């Protein structure tokens, strides 16, 4: 019966992760469609990229490690954390400590999987919150950077020259991205390719739009100052609408997370602090039935809260 409960807990955790990925699926699809549309517009120009740009992009492709390591580094980069082993240990250390504490309090090991799943979920939520904060800061800084580029291009400077003269006045975290792009430009890469490589880990639509528009302005010419100014206005309007949406739905989303995590967190804390209180739940038939009923109710409540939050 204990093995069945462990499998049910693992299934509930996987179901919660699947719901989270499903929630973010429409946004990923919209971003992919937008990028495909822009890519079709610049396919011919991208095919005619300079040899220096291709040579600069080859070491980046050859230096990739495993997909898991690349994904972990990208997540830490989006969160504004150094992509080092020390950071990973600091994030996973409390999870391992909680698992060891659960093993010490319950030698049977039945509390280890729920403790591990709950601690990893908390770490994931903290990383997601930090990533959202970093993205919001970048989105707020980008219109000001574009306004400075507009002023530089309106007096006769080219887009690369305006970029080189403007990025030093920005602040982190946007300055980190721009400095990385400028380092690639100094090594011989085109500006749009450099921006694409530097902004790839962040997966931010505004940065992807910027490097596409920059490539069009460099290869096709035209009034780049007007294009950049329109992008700046669009980003300000989009950021304002996003802030209003977040403020409107903050209470419902926070209530969903608190109500969903409170039973699991309180049960884990009570089990660790008073193991004798929870032993009858795993040694008697009535306790097994109560645990299965609580697990089913928790799963049903999580799905209902997920549908409620997704409908906003």
Automatic annotation (TrEMBL):
<feature type="transmembrane region" description="Helical">
    <location>
        <begin position="6"/>
        <end position="23"/>
    </location>
</feature>
<feature type="transmembrane region" description="Helical">
    <location>
        <begin position="83"/>
        <end position="104"/>
    </location>
</feature>
<dbReference type="GO" id="GO:0005886">
    <property type="term" value="C:plasma membrane"/>
</dbReference>
<feature type="transmembrane region" description="Helical">
    <location>
        <begin position="286"/>
        <end position="306"/>
    </location>
</feature>
<keyword id="KW-1003">Cell membrane</keyword>
<keyword id="KW-0472">Membrane</keyword>
<dbReference type="InterPro" id="IPR018076">
    <property type="entry name" value="T2SS_GspF_dom"/>
</dbReference>
<keyword id="KW-0812">Transmembrane</keyword>
<keyword id="KW-1133">Transmembrane helix</keyword>
<dbReference type="Pfam" id="PF00482">
    <property type="entry name" value="T2SSF"/>
</dbReference>
<feature type="transmembrane region" description="Helical">
    <location>
        <begin position="254"/>
        <end position="274"/>
    </location>
</feature>
<feature type="domain" description="Type II secretion system protein GspF">
    <location>
        <begin position="145"/>
        <end position="265"/>
    </location>
</feature>
<protein>
    <submittedName>
        <fullName>Flp pilus assembly protein TadB</fullName>
    </submittedName>
</protein>
<feature type="transmembrane region" description="Helical">
    <location>
        <begin position="110"/>
        <end position="127"/>
    </location>
</feature>
């Amino acid at each position: 019966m204990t093995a069945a409960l462990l499998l049910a807990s693992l299934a509930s955790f996987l179901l919660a992760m699947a719901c989270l990925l499903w929630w973010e699926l429409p946004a990923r699809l919209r971003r992919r469609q937008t990028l495909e549309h822009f890519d079709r517009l610049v396919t011919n120009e991208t095919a005619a990229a300079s040899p220096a740009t291709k040579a600069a992009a080859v070491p980046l492709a050859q230096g990739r490690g495993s997909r898991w390591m690349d994904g972990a580094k990208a997540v830490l980069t989006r969160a504004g954390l150094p992509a080092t082993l020390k950071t990973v240990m600091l994030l996973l250390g409390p999870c391992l400590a909680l698992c060891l504490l659960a093993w010490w309090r319950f030698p049977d090991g039945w509390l280890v999987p729920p403790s591990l799943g709950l601690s990893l979920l908390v770490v994931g939520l903290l990383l997601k919150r930090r990533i959202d904060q970093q993205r919001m800061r970048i989105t707020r800084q980008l219109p000001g950077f574009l306004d400075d580029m507009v002023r530089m291009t309106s007096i006769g400077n080219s887009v690369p020259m305006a970029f080189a003269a403007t990025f030093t006045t920005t602040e982190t975290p946007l300055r980190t991205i721009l400095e990385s792009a400028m380092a690639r430009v100094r090594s011989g890469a085109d500006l749009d390719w450099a921006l694409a490589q530097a902004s790839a880990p962040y997966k931010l639509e505004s940065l992807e739009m910027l490097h596409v528009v920059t490539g069009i302005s460099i290869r096709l010419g035209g009034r780049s100052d007007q294009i950049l100014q329109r992008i700046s206005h669009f980003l300000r309007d989009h950021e304002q609408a996003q802030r209003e949406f977040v403020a409107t739905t903050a209470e419902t989303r926070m209530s969903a997370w608190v109500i969903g995590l409170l039973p699991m967190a309180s049960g884990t804390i009570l089990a660790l602090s008073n193991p004798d209180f929870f032993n009858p739940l795993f040694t008697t038939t009535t306790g097994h039935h109560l645990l299965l009923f609580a697990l089913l109710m928790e799963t049903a409540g999580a799905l209902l809260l997920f549908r409620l939050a997704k409908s906003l």
